[in-house]
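The instructor's notes for this session suggest beginning with a concrete chain rather than abstract definitions. Hand out the sequence below and ask the class to guess, before any prediction is shown, which regions might be ordered.
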Amino acid sequence: MRSGGRVSRPGDTPPTATTPKRHPKQPPPLAPPSPLVPSDQCLVPAPGVPMSSHRILDETFDLTPGLLIEVGGEEAHHAVKSKRLAAGDSVGLLDGRGRVATARIEGVEKAGKGDWRLRLAVGEVEQAEPVRPWLEIVAAAPKGPRLEGMIDQLSQAGASSWRPLASDRVVVDPREGKLDRMGRVAKEAAKQCGRAYLMAIGGRMTLARALAAPDEDGAKARVLIADAGGAPISKALAGEPGGSVRVLVGPEGGWTDEERALAIAGGATAVGLGPHVLRTETAAVVAAALVRAATGA
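After discussion, reveal the predicted structure:
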């Protein structure tokens, strides 16, 4: 028999007011998202202090609870015109130096043609600890826009710093202007993923220097060289207490025999990144992710 336009069959359970109808092919409703709290690198789902999905990063921010700060330029324009934020909305603030805050938009003002300003009241502030181990990626710079993609993904994967490698088969030697642009790419990536500390962009580093240079604390770094046939990174770092890790990733032409010998003689450990041949930018990002996974970061 028919009831409300639905054909009843034996064994059917009629719908009730507390059991809404759903098309058989319609997926179940998604669970509400977990709140986000700042970690040392990127935001991770966890119970705790909620944080807005829209974040503003400025290294000049004075993130003092209760302080009123103003944001203008492209950041304000993007927040108002693209994100449609208004007075009363919440945003996340980062200074790139470990301080992460929530803020409330107290006012939105049009300062000129296409120009907007936000007045923000700083709320709760947290100081994140830098993730350990400190992870340096010294990798050959790939050609063209692939370098920007590598920097963006290294930032998301949790690398602490990147330096361009200078070796025998390197083709690209990024100059100061390009390195400055990579710093801006790292900043945008940090804002997107919510990492509390900006990934540092350094100057070129030779293989010999990469093998001998101390880390940012003046201590000896654990040096890994990405090379086919090397040990898994998880095995190479087993039992490591912390400190810092420096991963060397060669150019697309690969390492020369002399460079391999120099690296091993200099104390580096050869590590493999999987069964396939990887592009330089892919190898750098995979190495960063594997180090973070192996060290539990």
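Then share the key points. The helical segments are 73-82, 146-157, 176-193, 207-212, 233-236, 257-265, 280-294. The chain is about 25% helix and 30% strand.
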